[in-house]
Structure to design on (354 residues):
C-alpha cells in the first residue's frame, strides 16, 4: 500500500500526463493522464502508435515513441523507475505552438532570402569577393537559414505524407549523406566514423528528405555537444524489417550528468528535448521525421562519458506505399542551397562559404 502511495505522490509531481506500467499493464496514473482517459488496468500496447516492438526490449535510457490518448496523437517517452516503467506524455503531436512558430518563421524567410541574394552578388563582385569577412558573414546567414527552416518545418514534419515516400537502396542513400558530411568536416577538429553492418542491398520506402534531415541534424548537434577530436561514430544495421541508425559520441562527465538529469529525472520532466544544449538543437525535426516513419528514438549512455542515439525505422517494401508522384514536386527545404552546407553550418569552417 505504501508503495502505491509513493508512486501516486511521484506522479503528482510530474507536470504532464504520466503513468506507471508493470508487465505491459498500466498500474497507476496521475490526474492529468486520467483526464485523457488513461486508467489503470489498460494494456499499454493498445495505446502505442509507434514503439511496440522497441518497448518489448527496452532496458534503460529514454525511449521516445508516440501514443494515442482520448483519440489524440501525442509524443511520449518512457524511462525505467525501479522495476516499473514510467511513461509521460510530452505534447500533442500536432502541437498548435509549433504551427505558431512555423508562421513566425515564414515572416522571416523573405528578408533572409533577400540578404542571401545580396551576399551572392557581393561574393561574385571582383571588388569584394576576396574579402574573408564575407565568407564568415555568409556562413552565419546559412546558420540563420537553418534555424528558420527548422522552425518552419517542425509542425509539417509531424504529418504523414505518403506521397513523399520513395523506393531507394538504403545503404547507398544513408552512406552518401554521411560520406559527404565527412568530406566537408575534413579540415575541422571533428571526425566521423561510419560503419554499415548490412552486407546485402536493402531496398525500401522512406521519405528521403526527412531521413537526410534527421541524419545531418544529429551529426551537427552531436558535434556541437560532444568532445572535439573524439570521433562521432555512426552505424547502420538491419534487424528484420527495420533499420537501426545509431549515433555515438563522447561527452564530459558534467555534460553526461546534464543529459541524465534531462531524461532520467522523475521529478521535473521537461516539455521536450532541451534546446539550450547543442545535442538537442533540431530535435523536433529529427523526432518527427522518425515518428512519421512509425519509428522510435532511444537515448542512452551505454558506457561512461558516452551518449548514444538509436533511431529504429521500420521499412516497408516498395508497392506497399504510394510512391513519389510524377506531378508532386515538393519545395526544397533548403531553398535550393546545398543541403549539407545549410545543415552543418554550425560546425563547418568559414572557408567553405566563399
Amino acid at each position: 500500500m505504501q508503495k502505491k502511495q509513493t508512486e501516486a505522490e511521484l506522479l503528482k509531481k510530474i507536470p504532464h500526463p504520466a503513468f506507471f506500467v508493470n508487465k505491459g499493464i498500466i498500474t497507476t496514473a496521475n490526474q492529468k493522464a486520467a483526464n485523457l482517459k488513461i486508467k489503470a488496468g489498460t494494456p499499454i500496447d493498445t495505446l502505442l502508435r509507434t514503439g511496440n516492438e522497441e518497448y518489448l526490449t527496452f532496458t534503460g535510457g529514454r525511449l521516445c515513441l508516440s501514443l494515442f490518448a482520448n483519440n489524440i496523437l501525442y509524443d511520449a517517452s518512457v524511462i525505467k523507475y525501479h522495476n516499473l516503467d514510467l511513461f509521460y506524455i510530452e505534447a500533442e503531436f500536432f502541437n498548435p505552438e509549433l504551427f505558431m512558430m512555423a508562421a513566425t518563421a515564414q515572416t522571416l524567410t523573405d528578408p533572409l532570402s533577400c540578404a542571401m541574394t545580396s551576399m551572392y552578388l557581393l561574393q561574385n563582385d571582383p571588388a569584394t569577393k576576396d574579402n574573408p569577412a564575407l565568407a564568415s558573414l555568409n556562413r552565419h546567414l546559412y546558420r540563420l537559414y537553418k534555424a528558420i527552416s527548422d522552425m518552419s518545418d517542425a509542425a509539417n514534419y509531424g504529418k504523414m505524407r505518403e506521397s513523399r515516400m520513395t523506393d531507394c537502396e538504403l545503404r547507398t542513400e544513408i552512406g552518401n549523406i554521411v560520406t559527404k558530411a565527412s568530406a566537408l568536416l575534413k579540415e575541422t577538429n571533428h571526425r566521423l566514423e561510419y560503419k554499415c553492418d548490412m552486407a546485402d542491398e536493402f531496398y525500401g520506402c522512406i521519405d528521403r528528405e526527412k531521413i537526410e534531415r534527421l541524419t545531418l541534424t544529429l551529426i551537427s548537434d552531436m558535434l556541437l555537444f560532444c568532445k572535439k577530436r573524439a570521433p562521432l561514430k555512426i552505424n547502420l544495421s538491419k534487424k528484420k524489417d527495420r533499420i537501426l541508425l545509431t549515433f555515438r559520441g563522447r561527452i564530459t562527465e558534467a555534460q553526461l550528468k546534464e543529459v541524465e538529469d534531462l531524461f532520467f529525472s522523475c521529478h521535473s520532466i521537461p516539455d521536450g528535448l532541451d534546446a539550450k544544449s547543442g545535442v538537442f538543437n533540431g530535435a523536433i525535426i529529427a523526432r518527427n521525421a522518425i515518428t512519421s516513419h512509425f519509428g522510435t528514438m532511444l537515448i542512452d549512455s551505454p558506457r561512461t562519458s558516452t551518449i548514444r542515439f538509436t533511431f529504429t525505422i521500420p521499412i516497408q517494401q516498395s508497392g506497399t506505399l504510394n510512391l513519389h508522384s510524377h506531378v508532386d514536386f515538393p519545395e526544397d527545404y533548403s531553398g535550393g542551397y546545398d543541403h549539407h552546407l545549410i545543415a552543418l553550418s554550425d560546425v563547418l569552417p568559414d572557408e567553405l562559404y566563399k
About this structure: The chain is about 35% helix and 25% strand. The CA atoms of residues 120 and 281 lie 27 Å apart.
